[in-house]
Each structure stands twice: as C-alpha cells, then as structure tokens.
Amino acid sequence: MLTLFQRFSLSPRRLSLLESWGPIVILLLAAVLRLYNLGFPQSLNFDETYYVKDAFALINGGYERDWDSAADASFAAGNPTGLLSTPSFVVHPPLGKWLIGLGMLVFGASDPVGWRIVVALLGVATVWLTMKSAKLIFNSNIWALVAGFLMAIDGVGIVLSRTALLDQILGFFVILAFYFLLRDRKQVRIGSWNRPWLIAMGGSLGLATGVKWSGLYFVVGFLLYVIFSEANLNYRVQRSIELKSETKLPKTFWIVPSLTQALRNGVLVAIPTFLTYLFSWGGWLLSKDAWSRNWADQEGNAFTGILSWIPRPLQSLWHYHVEIYNFHINLSSSHPYEAKAFTWPFMLKPTAFFWEERDAGCLFETSGSDCVSAITSLGNPFIWWAALLAISVLAASWFRTRDKTTTLLALGLFAGYVPWLLLPNRTMFEFYVIAFSPWIILLLTAGLRAWFKNSAKPKQAANWIAGYLVLASLGTIFFYPIWSGMWISYDFWQLHMWLPSWI
Predict the structure, then answer these.
(1) Contact 162, 169 (CB under 8 A)
(2) Which residue of 55, 146, 293, 422 has the fewest CB atoms within a 10 Å radius of its CB?
(3) Cα separation, 288 vs 299, whole angstroms
C-alpha cells in the first residue's frame, strides 16, 4: 500500500528529503517551543519552589536542606540565599534534582534558564525517542514523523519541559526504557543471558525510579510484558511443532522454559534497576548529615539477627524509605487543582502553574481589560480528545483481532496510568499524564494509520489526516500563549477557557 505522503503525489526525491530532514525539523520545532523565553517567569513556578531549592542544596552539599522563609524571594531577585544547615525531609529520590542542578552549574543558580534547561532538553529528547519508538513499531519513517510532530506540539509536554519539575524527567527515562524494550524485541534471544537492550531497559527504569517512585509501575509493567510475551512465544512454538508432527506434547514443554526464562529476565532487569536506583542516592550515602542518614547509628535502631550484616548506611536508607512510603500512602490533603486520575485523559482539570496580572502592555490588549500572564498545563485538546477516540476504536478492534501492536502500545497506559486509578483517595494532579503521554501520541498515530490503511478511499483519508494535523497545529498556535506565560489580555485568556473547570 502506498504511504500517506505518496498519496499526495510527492516525488521520490521530495519524499526522501522529507524522511531525511523531517526529524531534524521536528526536533527544531520542539526545541523552539520549549526553549523560547525559558527564563520566564523569573520567580519559582509552582512546585519549582521545592525542586529548584533542593537541586541547589544538592550541588552545594550533596543532600537536601531546609531554607528560610525569604528563599523564594531571593531566587526571584536573582540572588539565591537562605540555605540552612539543617537537613530537610523530602519525599522523592534525588536524581531528578541532581539533573536540575546540572543546569545551575552551567548557567548559575541566579538564572531561571539554569533551573529549567536540563528539563527542557530532556523534553526535546522525549520527542526524539517517541519518533524512534514509532519507527520501530510502525516500520515507517512517515508515521514516525507524524508521532514526533504531535508529541512536539502538545501542550503538556511543552509546559512540563519549561518547568523545573520532576515529571518530564521521569517521562524521559520511561520512554527511553520503552525504546530499549523495543530494541530487545527486535532481537529477542530465548534462553540467553545475552540481552544488552533488556539490561539497558532495567538501568533506565532504575533511573526513572530514582526520579519518582512511580517509575516502579513501569518496572513491573515492562517486565511482566517481557515475561508473558516470551511465554506466549514458547507456547506458539509448541503448537507449531504439534501441528507439524501431529503429536500432542506435554504442557511442561513450554511452561518449564518459560519459567526459567522469566527468572532470567527478572535478574537481567532487577539488578540494573536496583544498581542505578541505588546510584541515584549516592550523594545521600556519601553525606554525614542528610535526613535519617545516621538513623542506624543511634542506639537501638540497627538491624539485628540475619539482617545485621547489612551496612548501616543502607539500613538508614531503608528507614528513610519507610518514612517516604508512609508519607505517600497518607497523602490526601485537598488542593484547588487536584484531579482524579479517571479525568486526566479528558483534560478536565489542568493545573495552573503561574498567574500574574498588570494594567497594560500585552498582546490583544483591549480597553477595560487587564493584562495577564498564565501558564496552564493543558494538553492540546485536538490531540488528547482525538486520542480518546482513537484509543476507543483500537480497543474495540483489539477484542476481535488481539492486535500485537495495540497490546504493545497499551503497555505505557497500563504501567503509567492504571495504577493511579487504584489510588482514589490520594492527592494527584493532571500533569502526571506527562509520564505516559508518549503512548497517548503513539496510540493516536496508530489510530490514524489504521484509518488510512483500512480506508476504501486512501486519497480522501490522507486529505483528512493532513487536515487534522493542520488543525492540531492551529490548536498549538492558539494555546501557546497560556503554555508559555505570554502577556495577553484577560479577554483573550478567557477565550482559551473552553470548560468551566479549566479556570
């Protein structure tokens, strides 16, 4: 079947140029949308008040510390001060904050670009990995370009890449792990320890967990997928032998090798996951005064019996993890922007990261209307709502076909989204979708591809898909001011509030 762009009668030369230069253009687009005016706002934005200050403490001492009450104002003034000597209890692992700190080492802690540059670059890298993953899944440069383009222009990725939070960093590591998983699927070796891509997947998942514990959901989801897909392969091999030989084989023929391979895969994934996660705590382990660092050295706290051999720093680290776990399971405080997980794909309650007003000096200024600067983590509605339709169609089709591509693409949703549905009482926010947004884009691309391939009039379908991409682009142009904090009139801002819950 002719490809999407061949339906528009592109010459082979132009098609080759598109496939060669298209990824570069998309990455440049992603970079512009994420790096433009990155230093605005000058003040700490939303939860940057935690992560930027923690990052500053890490690069200036190796562990998180408390700050005085004027610290936020000092950052906004370009002269960070107020770091105290007392350790701070933080509830997320250090790796993401170490990465934020790298930007401060290059640009300085007084420049907001330094706070956000690493996150922004990882956001661009996420677009690249989404394209690379799409190429492996669809075996098509064109559909990879479609996936990359949609990822580049979506608002959730743009806002989270422009803000020094942990979630885009988490999103980068989990899509990196997925890319390694896809590479492993291309050369899977049943019964072998020689699985470098699987080991790389484990290492990436350990780094993801070193950013946020929700990375553990992906560890479990990806590992289970590998185990069950290879068990299914063993089963199909047995069925093929039985059909050819007309002989019934015992079930142990496929069950035993599946179990041994599951144990082998568990080792190949678990060890690099654990080691990279432990590495993320290196600063804490090497310090002497971090929170709970000396817990095991205090009388009566050290492990006894068969656990007494564990080094005391690791005993203290275990105790700290217990403290963090207790915090998370009891986190149920109300917040004006909290959103239950079942509402996330519908984009019903986006989080307002920033809001400021002034009298004049803005785009689309009208008499009697104030000027506002707003940053709202709202996805492009034309992408997210279209993705819901595509996912619904693919899911309905899956029950008839058991399509392997749909199963693989759904993996990110099962790992990154479904666990949150099981925590109805926990405080959570809609921008958590950034961790699984690449799979939303990939499923949308799969839906568009299925529409094109199954259409009785491919030329007409290609025109509709092209029109849809233009519509999504116009959506990004329209919403970009409230993704980047541009100064606009209050009336123009209201035009973006399509639903009452967006305000």
Answers:
(1) no
(2) 422
(3) 17
Q: Is the pLDDT of residue 333 over 80?
A: no
Which residue in the block uniquely carries the two structure tokens 């590998």? 226
Q: How many residues does the chain have?
A: 503
Look-up: residue for tokens 């029109």?
467
Task: Report pLDDT digits (tens) over 358-417.
Answer: 988 899 888 777 999 999 999 999 999 999 999 999 999 999 998 999 999 999 999 999
Look at strands 65-67 and 83-87 and give their pairing: antiparallel
Phi-psi category of residue 446: left, alpha or beta, with phi > 0 → left and psi -120 to 50 → alpha? alpha
DSSP conformation class of 345: G
Q: What is the DSSP string of 356-379?
A: EEESS--BT--TT--EEEEEE---
Query: What one-letter code names the amino acid at 302?
Result: A
**Cβ atoms within 10 Å, residue 17:** 12
Q: What is the pLDDT of residue 365?
A: 85
What six digits make up the tokens of 480? Answer: 């970009």
C-alpha pair distances (Å), 149 with each of 126, 138, 289: 12, 15, 47
Measure the CA–CA gap between 34 and 45, rounded to whole angstroms.
15
Residue 216 has pLDDT above 50, yes or no: yes
Q: Which one-letter DSSP state was computed for residue 250?
A: P
> Token digits for 361?
């000096």
Stretch (H or E) spanning 235: helix 215-245
**CB of 129 within 8 A of CB of 87?**
no
pLDDT digits (tens, 9 = 90+) for 283-299: 999 999 999 999 999 98
Closest CA to 290 of 48, 80, 81, 94: 94
CB 128 within 8 A of CB 430: no
